[in-house]
Write a structure and sequence with these properties.
Blueprint (H helix, E strand, L loop, with lengths): L3 E4 L4 H14 L4 E5 L6 H6 L2 E3 L5 H11 L3 E4 L5 H6 L1 H21 L4 E3 L2 E2 L23 H20 L3 E2 L1 E3 L1 E3 L12 H11 L2 E4 L6 E6 H13 L11 E2 L3 E4 H9 L6 E4 L4 H6 L8 H7 L7 H20 L1
Parallel strand pairs: 1-2, 1-4, 2-3, 4-5, 5-7, 6-8, 8-12, 9-11, 10-14
Antiparallel strand pairs: 11-13
Helix pairs in contact: 1-8, 5-6, 7-12
C-alpha cells in the first residue's frame, strides 16, 4: 500500500495506530480520518487529518480520491457498553459504515482493508478457557452481533470479489495515551489512572472477572504484522484470535500494589458485569502464531510498571 486512510483515528486504538503507521510509511501517506472529536496535536502535526464519517459515503469518496488511498483501516465503531444503551446507533455505525468502506474499496480496487473484530463475538455458550479459533459465535450484545456479521461480511468480500480484507479479534486493550470510549474492558485502563491520582478505584465489574487483555504496544504490533503478512499464507481472513495475557481484576490489584502498597479498590458491578461474564477467560491464538508469527511482548507486571510510570509522569506535569 502507498496511501492509507485510518477511519476512526481519534479513538483509543486508531490514534496510536495512525502514528505508528506514519513512522513506517511516512506522515504524508497515512491520513487520519476523524469524525467530531478534535484530533490530538500529534495527529495534526505528523500528517494529514480529514473529517471522515464512515456513514458519509460522499466524504469517504472525497478523501479517498484526494489522497489516492489504496488501503483503508476501519477503526470506527460503537463499543459494547455504549452499544447496549443505543443498539440502533451501534448497528448503523458498525454495519452500514463497514459496508460503505468495503464497497468503496471494491469499487476502487484497493489493495487492502483491515477491519478489526473483538472477543465480543463470543457468548455464554462459547468455551471460556483457551477459546478455539473455530467455535460457537452467539454473542449477547449488539456490539458482538455486529462484529460477527462484520467478520462474515469481510470473508464474503474476499471470496466473492477477491478483495484483501483482514481482521483480528482484539481482547481488551490497555493504553496510557488515549482513554477508551464505552467498552466493557474500560476498567482495566481506568484502574491505573485512579491508582495514580487518588490511590483508590471503584470497579464496575467484580474481583473474579477474568478477561483476555493486551497492552497497546502489542496491539499495534499485532495489527501491523497482520497487515504485512503474505495473503497466500493466511488460513483465515477477518477473524484471527490474538492473545497476550489474561487476568482477573484481583490480579491487577496485586500487580498495582507492588508499586502502590496503599492502593484500595471497591466493587460496584453494573450492567457490564453480565457482558464480561459472557466473554472468554482466554483465547487460543495458535492460528495467528502459525500463519503470521504473532507473539506478544508484555505480561501483566511488565505492563503495570510501564502504565504507572507513564501515567505518573503525566500526573506530575499536570500539577506543575
Amino acid at each position: 500500500m502507498k496511501n492509507i486512510l485510518v477511519v476512526g483515528s481519534a479513538g483509543q486504538i486508531g490514534s496510536e495506530l495512525t502514528l505508528a503507521l506514519r513512522d513506517i510509511y511516512g506522515g504524508g501517506h497515512v491520513v487520519a480520518g476523524v469524525r467530531k472529536t478534535r484530533p490530538s496535536e500529534k495527529l495534526v502535526e505528523t500528517g494529514p487529518c480529514e473529517v471522515v464519517d464512515a456513514l458519509d459515503t460522499d466524504a469517504l469518496v472525497s478523501v479517498v480520491d484526494k489522497y489516492k488511498i489504496d488501503g483503508i483501516i476501519n477503526m470506527a465503531a460503537i463499543l459494547s457498553g455504549t452499544g447496549e444503551k443505543n443498539p440502533m446507533l451501534a448497528w448503523d455505525v458498525n454495519m452500514n459504515g463497514l459496508i460503505n468502506i468495503l464497497e468503496l474499496a471494491r469499487e476502487r480496487r484497493m489493495k487492502q482493508v483491515l477491519v478489526p473484530s473483538s472477543i465480543a463475538v463470543f457468548g455464554p455458550t462459547t468455551p471460556v478457557d483457551n477459546t478455539p479459533q473455530e467455535t460457537i459465535l452467539k454473542p449477547t450484545t449488539i456490539y458482538g452481533v455486529t462484529k460477527v456479521a462484520g467478520e462474515l461480511l469481510g470473508d464474503y468480500y474476499v471470496k466473492k470479489y477477491g478483495l484483501d480484507v483482514r481482521g483480528l479479534r482484539y481482547p481488551g486493550i490497555i493504553s496510557h495515551e488515549t482513554l477508551p470510549g464505552g467498552g466493557t474492558t474500560d476498567y482495566a485502563v481506568a484502574i491505573y489512572y485512579d491508582a495514580i491520582r487518588q490511590k483508590r478505584f471503584t470497579c464496575f465489574v467484580d474481583d473474579y472477572t477474568r478477561l483476555p487483555m493486551m497492552y497497546m504496544p502489542d496491539c499495534l504490533k499485532a495489527t501491523i504484522d497482520l497487515m504485512g503478512a503474505d495473503f497466500d499464507k493466511l488460513s483465515h481472513h477477518c477473524d484471527y484470535n490474538v492473545g497476550a495475557m489474561d487476568f482477573t481484576v484481583a490480579d491487577m490489584v496485586v500487580s498495582i500494589k507492588k508499586h502502590i502498597p496503599d492502593f484500595e479498590i471497591t466493587y460496584e458491578p453494573d450492567y457490564r458485569q453480565e457482558i464480561a461474564d459472557s466473554w472468554p477467560n482466554s483465547v487460543d491464538d495458535s492460528a495467528a502464531r502459525q500463519d503470521w508469527g504473532w507473539k506478544p511482548d508484555y505480561d501483566l507486571d511488565a505492563m503495570t510498571a510501564d502504565m504507572l510510570k507513564a501515567i505518573g509522569e503525566k500526573h506530575e506535569k499536570s500539577l506543575i
